[in-house]
Amino acid sequence: MSLVVTEEAVLRCSHGGQLQLAIGDPRVTVDGHKVITGGMEGGLAFGSAVNPVPGMLTPCPAQTPTSPPVSQPCVTAPTTPVGLALKLTVGGRPVLLDTATGTTVSGSGPGTWTVASAGQTTLEAV
After folding, report:
1. Number of H helices and number of E strands within the chain?
2. From residue 12, how far is each of 20, 43, 83, 109 by CA, in Å?
3. What burial class does residue 58 get, using C-beta atoms within 10 Å of its C-beta: 0-12 exposed, 13-18 middle, 19+ buried?
4. What is the rounded CA–CA span in Å between residue 93 and residue 87?
5. Burial track 30-47 (b if 16+ CB lie within 10 A, e otherwise)
6. Alpha carbon separation from 38 to 17, 66, 120 (Å, rounded)
7. E strands, 1-126, where?
8. Which pTM value belongs to this model?
9. What distance in Å separates the CA atoms of residue 50 and residue 101, rounded to the nearest whole number?
10. Cα separation, 48 vs 93, whole angstroms
């Protein structure tokens, strides 16, 4: 079983950038924190030291290959079906699990993101 991801979760990009999810579906909470359903994890920017975003813990250092390089941090794409619950849904959408992973787009090319922390340790799902 895998942990259900909440709005307190931390995602990490392949460049080492981190961000905390600040969204969630209020219909289901774990320890008072909203759960994340599939699709909510797409389109999130990891931010940079120059342009921080809310919830960013560690900026993504990705830069364009131009001269001079320009900061262009990772942006997440939605997870693959592997990181979505098979049985637990909210509003017909599967919840995101701590096994989720996906691709990112940045100035240095494609990368990946993973769940560094689910944001809770109480609720597990399959």
Report:
1. 0, 12
2. 9, 14, 15, 16
3. middle
4. 10
5. beebbbbbbebbeebbbb
6. 21, 35, 17
7. 2-3, 10-13, 18-20, 25-30, 33-35, 56-58, 75-76, 84-90, 93-96, 101-106, 109-117, 124-125
8. 0.90
9. 26
10. 31
Q: What are the residue ranges of helices labelled H in the chain?
A: none
Place of tokens 């320009």: 70
pLDDT tens, position by position, 2-33: 999 999 999 999 999 999 888 899 999 999 99
Report yes or no: 3 and 97 within 8 Å, Cβ to Cβ: yes
Centre a 10 Å sphere on the Cβ of residue 70 and count the other Cβ atoms it contains.
12
Distance CA 93, CA 39 (A): 9
Q: Which of 5, 1, 3 lies closest to 76, judged by CA?
A: 5
Q: Is the CB of residue 4 less than 8 Å from the CB of residue 109?
A: no
Q: Tens digit of pLDDT for each residue in 38-55?
A: 999 999 988 766 556 666
